[in-house]
Amino acid sequence: MWQWLVRLYHRLGSPKWFYDITEKWIPWLAVLSGLGMLAGLVLGLLYAPVDYQQGNSYRIMFIHVPAAILAQSAYIMMAVAGAIFLIWKMKMAAWVAKVLAPIGASFCLIALLTGAIWGKPTWGAWWVWDARLTSMLLLLFLYVGVMAITMAMDNEDSGFKAAAILALVGVVNIPIIKYSVQWWNTLHQPASLKLTEKPSMHIDMLIPLLIMILSTYLLFALLVILRTRNEILRNERKSKWVQERLVR
Amino acid sequence: MILQFHSVSEFIAMGNHGFYVWLAYGLTLVILGWNLLQPLFERKRLVKEQAQRQRREKKHAPKA
Description:
With about 250 residues, chain A is mostly helical. Chain A has nine helices and no strands.
């Protein structure tokens, strides 16, 4: 078991191994996430019942909730990758952390925008300085900060180091986002999905939501792989294996 | 599972919430579309640059 883990770690650290194995994953991830989203949207937009309080505006949930989940997952992954880079100096980890920032920021922006649009008909305001909304806005600023620091340093390595430290410090914000709806009296509704409890949602709303969450994770994996492969090409362009694969 | 709308216009109207629903979905499509296209264009550019570089190096390499 331990040896297997060590081997996996060394493989993941190898840009060549990552580049070659993900080549085979890309079409599968593209097809599965595309079909999943199509199914989730057809079920969510056409078949899920109307909410008795919010009417049809609640259908924004099928993109808002997956985007918000991914924005937080991506942040944790970015911090873990940053820690791996700081501790073991693994180049691949630095590149993955670097590409996770704009992707996570995009999901965070989607969550904020769709939330604001959902808020208007539901609360009567596009924006309120509510604990959940404010902590999500802070998450977006953290992503932007990580991107800016990565690019700001003259020495690429010190840029990665400073970005990793900021990412790790910012992890404090993640439990704040999660518990904001419990700790403070907020306008934002409490979590619709909990791992420990039976969902209160109608099953015909729950199924499309779960399909959308899964498909969004697949799309996220695809986006991370595409950007990481570009990062590998840019940094390893002098190595023989890259030259062999690009020009035949 | 029952179809919730009886016509296309009813579906687009979303019971007076059409503007909000479609604005949210439209913005999401734009942001995700950009996220998908950006790395594809970037790859094209990198491959092109690499081909040019390799051609140049071949040209200037001393002949054996």
